[in-house]
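User: Let's play a game. I give you a shape written as tokens, and you guess the letters that built it. Ready? Here's round one.
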């Protein structure tokens, strides 16, 4: 499967025959060019050989043979008389055992179509000067356009005739004499539509001219946002200004317009950053993405258009998943060059909630006792000794903080669940978890989950969470909400920032990242959180861990220094 392609597929192809029905409408009985069938299948399991038999309307056409996770393509001319006008059944059956599993990417039948409209619409071709007659419209065609050159469509004037016997309409039109199709100058392509088939615009928004590609003074912090969420960033921009950092608010639609011809794509953000680094006097050091992303940006699954600020899906060892670091990984080395964070918000209200949390945190002039408290949580030890991993990380903490250990192997699951909630509610500057996890919980024993977050009452005593497990940062999901996002959106407390993975990783490199992030972020130098994460990622070799650990929060934010000097 590809990182840049469309990774939505059709049904599974296995040893159980899979039938796919395709409609062939208005098959031309006098066709001189034979029909053809094309089948594209995506392999699922790396290294496994695939052999898939392909039949059309019960007649075997041959086998598609390919290997592993590649894309297999089968093309064949359809024997005369086999294709039917109406329903046609393509049957796909794996021949190489239970691991011979594929996904349908596409099935296409190419055939000569009669000059008859399909549901009051038809795209057809003709040679320059041909007199063409099209029938089968239920209402008079409202538009006939030569679209041979899509950039220069030409409206044609047809002669329309009504058939009083059956209530249908037909028209005749002459293909223009001027040949404009450079690929095939002997053909014109013409579109005919009835009035009800002409779509209306879903919405109209005024364009605000922007010049983000031009040389300019620039800003240290770039905040990319949908326009409807932009006002929520004002408190955060003021907090940045108070700390001496300049920030720029950039509308995502402006980037689509300037860098991708208006098309929705994460590539527009990357191209913008690449340009800004070269053209701005003050190059961006921090990127804040103000909006959630979706693994389904085109809404194939029907959950809604939730891709407010897109991410990029990248391949890792175990999973195709989201990586916001890709935006500034200009060398495709797995190492970002701009510290990046995301506010995973879906509404203006959520945007205001999260931005206000962070602005309040950054603007607090005094620190309470909670800024000297750190909570270390470890899953039950087994194949991996999470208690030992946590102690390795804990050794990087400054002596000015007081550490509370909740190690499941010592306390037991029930006590650990209660202590985690109580300790977070009492206030912590940092909460660190090492262990197993799924999207919305810690551990297979459910130490801490989305339901527990709803009972948090830590108010403005907001910890940064470093979560070293799998999938708590799977922020692009449309089916469920990951724990990292729930912590950020918690109305009565929760987190001010979350570092968590959108992927599946092994414990040792996660522990190494954790150790290096804590060492840097909690040092007396007090670097911005995003800078600490960049420095830590530069110190590890595991590319999957580098790519999948994303920051939910403001990368320019600094973790609060301890308020006092308690015993360590």
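Assistant: Ready! My guess for every position:
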């Amino acid at each position: 499967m590809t990182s840049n392609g469309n990774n939505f597929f059709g049904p599974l192809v296995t040893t159980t025959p899979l039938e796919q029905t395709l409609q062939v409408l208005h098959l031309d009985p006098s066709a001189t060019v034979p029909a053809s069938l094309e089948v594209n299948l995506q392999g699922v399991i790396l290294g496994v050989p695939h052999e898939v038999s392909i039949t059309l309307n019960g007649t075997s056409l041959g086998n598609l043979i390919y290997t592993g996770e590649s894309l297999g393509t089968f093309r064949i001319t359809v024997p005369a008389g086999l294709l039917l006008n109406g329903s046609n059944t393509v049957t796909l059956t794996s021949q190489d055992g239970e691991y011979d599993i594929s996904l349908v990417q596409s099935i296409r039948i190419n055939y000569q179509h009669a000059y008859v409209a399909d549901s009051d619409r038809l795209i057809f071709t003709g040679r320059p000067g041909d007199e063409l007659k099209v029938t089968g419209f239920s209402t008079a065609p409202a538009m006939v356009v030569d679209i041979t050159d899509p950039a220069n469509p030409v409206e044609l004037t047809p002669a329309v005739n009504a058939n009083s016997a059956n209530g249908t309409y037909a028209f005749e039109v002459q293909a223009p004499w001027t040949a404009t199709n450079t690929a095939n100058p002997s053909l014109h392509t013409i579109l005919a539509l009835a009035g009800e088939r002409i779509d209306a615009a879903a919405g109209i928004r005024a364009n605000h001219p922007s010049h983000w590609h031009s040389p300019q003074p620039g800003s240290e912090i770039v905040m990319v946002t949908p326009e409807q969420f932009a006002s929520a960033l004002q408190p955060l921009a003021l907090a940045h200004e108070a700390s001496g950092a300049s920030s720029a608010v950039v509308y995502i639609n402006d980037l689509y317009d300037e860098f991708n011809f208006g098309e929705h794509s994460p590539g527009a953000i990357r191209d913008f950053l690449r340009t800004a680094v070269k053209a701005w006097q003050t190059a961006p050091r921090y990127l804040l993405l103000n909006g959630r992303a979706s693994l389904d940006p085109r809404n194939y699954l029907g959950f809604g258009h939730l891709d407010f600020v897109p991410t990029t899906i990248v391949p890792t060892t175990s999973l195709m998943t989201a990586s916001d670091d890709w935006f500034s990984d200009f060398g495709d080395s797995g190492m970002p060059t701009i510290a990046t964070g995301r506010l995973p918000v879906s509404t203006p209200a959520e945007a205001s909630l999260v931005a206000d949390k962070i602005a309040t945190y950054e603007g607090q002039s005094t620190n309470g006792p909670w800024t000297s408290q750190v909570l270390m949580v470890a899953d039950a030890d087994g194949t991996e000794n999470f208690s030992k991993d946590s102690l390795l990380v804990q050794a990087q903490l400054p002596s000015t903080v007081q550490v509370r250990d909740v190690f499941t192997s010592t306390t037991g699951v029930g006590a650990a669940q209660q202590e985690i909630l109580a300790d977070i509610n009492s206030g912590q500057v940092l909460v660190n978890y090492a262990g197993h996890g799924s999207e919305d919980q810690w551990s297979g024993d459910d130490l801490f989950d989305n339901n527990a977050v709803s009972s948090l009452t830590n108010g403005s005593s907001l910890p940064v969470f470093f979560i070293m497990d799998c999938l708590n940062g799977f922020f692009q999901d449309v089916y469920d909400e990951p724990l990292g996002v729930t912590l950020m959106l918690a109305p009565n407390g929760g987190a001010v920032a979350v570092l968590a993975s959108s992927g599946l990783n092994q414990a040792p490199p996660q522990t190494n990242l954790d150790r290096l992030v804590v060492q840097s972020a909690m040092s007396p130098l007090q670097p911005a959180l995003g800078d600490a994460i960049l420095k830590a990622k530069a110190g590890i070799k595991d590319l999957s861990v580098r790519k999948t650990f994303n920051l939910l929060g403001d990368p320019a934010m600094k973790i609060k220094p301890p308020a006092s000097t308690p015993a360590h």
